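Onboarding guide, step 5: your first structure request.
Type a short instruction followed by the sequence, for example:

Predict the 3D structure of this protein.
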Amino acid sequence: RGNLAIIRSRGAMTLVNYIDLEDYINGIAVREVSHYWPSEALRAMAIVFRTYALYSMRQNAARDFDVTSDVYSQVYGGASAERYRITDACNDTSGDVLTCAGSIFPAFYHSTCGGHTRNSAELWDIDIPPLKGVACAYCKGSPYFSWKARVSARDAAVKLSNAGVRVSSIKSIDIAGRGLSGSAAELTIQTREGEAVTIKAKDLRNILGPDVIKSTNFTVAARDRYIEFKGFGWGHGAGLCQWGAYFMAKAGYSLSEILYYYYPGSRIRNIYTQEKGDEAVRF
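The system replies with structure tokens like these:
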């Protein structure tokens, strides 16, 4: 969809796809959620995807592009990724976004929270009412509600060292603190040489692999040559819990009930008509 620009800079090329907002949402949705899910869940998530895209546009206003096509923004699959149920959900909610005090905010989302969504202030410098975190009793049926991982202690030490964390070996790992959601905040790594290194749990997860250590809501134990993790949820845990939204929709909740549950204090507004609010949406 849209047009393609080729930008040359410092011996490299950047390809930028200029595309209508609604076409963009159609092209990412099936990459971020199954098109077989209940319609209310799909409609709710279409609003979330649109909100996050517009927030990214504001954050990247000085760059040549608004979003990337991968997990660092939202995964975009183009026209080949479009599905009619996704398109219907996007069309039904065309222009609808979430706001806080009239302004677009980063509508974070993740696969499974594991029982409680996280306060975004624990992860990023964003402290607003819709992202404070809420208890979630809906995602217990998620295939990712609980998980286990076994990692080689030697491999973990190598990955940490390569990432700039000075760890020659790993004797033990202790959780130094947890947030309100139960997720680990910091870890203390004891080496066999008697040194102690402190690392943020989210950094450890990124270094060892977010598909291996599925969340930071875990317990951890170093056993001889291996490190064993047991945890709950998949993803950073902030904002909307997608599997929670799935089960809420299955239970008969509407898209607004789903969104207001996971983003308390937010409001749904329409950027094209302003029909759902008196004040214009601020970007």
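Each response can be followed by summary notes, for example: Helices lie at 21-32, 39-59, 84-92, 153-162, 201-208, 242-250, 255-262.
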